[in-house]
Amino acid sequence: MKNTLAVLLATSSLLATSAAAQSLDLEQEELTLGFIKLTDMAPLAVAYELGYFEDEGLFVTLEAQANWKVLLDGVISGELDGAHMLAGQPLAATIGYGTEAHIITPFSMDLNGNAITVSNEIWEEMRPNVPLMDDGLPQHPISAEALAPVVEDYLDRGEPFNMGMVFPVSTHNYEIRYWLAAGGLQPGFYSEQDISGQIGADVLLSVTPPPQMPSTMEAGTIFGYAVGEPWNQQAVFKDIGVPVITDYEMWHNNPEKVFGISAEFAAENPNTTIALTKALIRAAIWLDEND
Questions:
Q1: Cα dist. 214→1, 209, 211, 239 in Å?
Q2: What is the pLDDT of residues 42-91, one digit of tens each?
């Protein structure tokens, strides 16, 4: 037993020495990272709560942001050292759609995780148009073909049909447009002169920050939305809406969120960037092992 204990202690000491030898010479130890209140910011939370950042010599502050534009502007200005981002944001910023800046990502945070939810009132109008299974339950995924007659009734009465998505370059915007168009509804076009995305639209899509989606729908400002969790389930818990399709059913394993930093930060802090990425990879492994 004593020999076993001695071996364990020696092994432990060797591992600790090895870990110390592999520690990086960090250019920046104190970091502020931004996120939006969504389930898929989990790698940041896990790396923070389980001490993975500290294991890499990093002292991190996590700060919730009001919306995706504020978050991106924070990374560009340097107020934030990095952030949980929409997969499309680094691409859009780098090519100059919106605020131009060279944003890169060393880490993909998740795949899928979105859904489209409609209000209870709209669901009741859609329901007669939804095919049923043998047990009488709605057949999923639910096509926007079931929504088309409802939208037509609104347009015939001269009333706009409004739905929400989280950001122009978000996968949510692409997914809800695809779903609507596949069901025979025009989701609208963009042009150089008009970037509203509402040109010729049957359904008017507008930006709503994720945490505000349920309350905006409950107020009647929008009749449904495309968003990530937990805001679809929030509509279920509050009994104000019904999720009709997940993005997994539309776009299997689509890139959803990434960890974004400026190219300038990465160039000036290469070891810090590696340390951040290592901590996030450990967090992702933990999440995969602890469903």
A1: 61, 10, 7, 10
A2: 999 999 999 999 999 999 999 999 999 999 999 999 999 999 999 999 99
Statement: 29-111+255-289 belongs to CATH 3.40.190.10:
yes
**Residues 224/216, Cβ–Cβ less than 8 Å:** no
The alpha carbons of the chain give a radius of gyration, in whole angstroms, of: 23
Say yes or no: do domains 29-111+255-289 and 114-249 share a fold: yes
Q: What are the pLDDT digits (tens) for 240-265?
A: 999 999 999 999 999 999 999 999 99
> CB-side exposure of 184: number of CA atoms within 13 Å?
9
Question: Tokens in use for 47?
Answer: 């790396």
pTM, entire model: 0.88
Query: Taking a C-beta distance cutoff of 8 angstroms, is the pair 89, 68 a contact?
Result: yes
Q: Domain coordinates of the chain in residue numbers?
A: 29-111+255-289, 114-249
**CA separation (Å) from 270 to 14, 28, 41, 85, 241?**
27, 10, 23, 20, 46
- What does the alpha-carbon distance between residue 231 and residue 39 come to, in Å, rounded to a whole number? 9
Rounded Cα distance, 104 and 90, in Å:
6
In this structure, which topology does domain 114-249 adopt according to CATH?
Answer: D-Maltodextrin-Binding Protein; domain 2 (3.40.190)
183: left (phi over 0), alpha (psi -120 to 50) or beta: alpha
